[in-house]
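[09:14] KT: can someone run the structure on this one? pasting the chain below
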Amino acid sequence: MTATGAPARRTPPGTLRHVLTHLITPLLMCAGMGLAYLGAFHQPEPHGLRVDVVGQGRAAQALARTVEDGAGGALDVRTVATRREAVDALEHREVAGAYLPAAGGGTPELLVATAASGTTASVVEAAFTEVAAHRGSPLEVTDITEPAEGDPTGQGLFFLLVALSIGSYASVAVIGGAGAALPLRTRAALGLGTALAVSVIGTLLAGPVFGLVEHGLGGVWALAWAYSAGILWLGTGLHTFLGRWTTLAMTTLFVMLNFTSSGGIFEPALQPGFFGALHAFWNGAGFVEGARGLVHFGGLHVGRSVLTLALWAVAGLLMLGIAHLAEERRRRAGAGAADAGAAGVGSRAAAAHHRASLHDDPEVEEEAEEEAVGV
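[09:31] RB: done, structure tokens below
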């Protein structure tokens, strides 16, 4: 008893261990986020970044070799004959920039496409500004793309990806946890409906609200729905097996590895090879590149992005199928255990009634009734 007469509060046994066990998840998330983000973004350096020098003959080839040798492997420099060829390569995202040497005492020109990647354009501009300075000329930079008025940096699609991802993987905890008693078919339908809501919210914000997307808004919405549905289906299926560890798994898949490999901030050519390899097939990269192609490059490479997102959605459906089989197995095992328990109660009840009939005693009969109901 305390001085006021109230009983002393006792901590239930095992509480501290329970708390420490649950702290493992945020600590692992902290370590994972640090490794992923710092590993991917802390020191962006180009490696084999393709650029063109516009010109013909030995002078253009010599300049290309000089620039490539001076970059030490950071740039892959080739020559094209005309400015039109250089612009075409930029519009098809085959190169990161094209340099036109000064002719007849004019000013050298650098062509870039900031809508493809503003950070890549900055790297190329820095490299050729130095080249022009060595030749005693200022550099004129021409951007062949026009970023949306609401997205001057060209990174708005990446932040749309962030919003879609958080809305999707956070909903997994609700559908997989609070909705665990629902049939898996119902949870799958909820996932598709939630993905629709997430995609509509994201599209409205990107289009009418902030003006990040001025062209191809309907296509961006479709990509967003497919992207979100893949996450929700995959996460709902994983929840059957991982339980409270699902949050860590979803954060690893769709934040740590996803945002860092999406190409939304830095292109793969500016990142370590691991993240560049993920960019080739990860769903976040599929969404960003598909949306970028729709908004800025006339639908370039959208088919590849659709295929990527479709394969992730199929993977989610397969995971739901595996989860369904596992849940059915658990249900049958639970039903079997319940039937065995009921059979045991029934046999005990029969034995009790048999004893009562032998004694022909009301008290024994009452005890038999109590035993039959498990009192």
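[09:33] KT: thanks! The CA atoms of residues 64 and 77 lie 6 Å apart.
[09:34] RB: yep, looked fine to me
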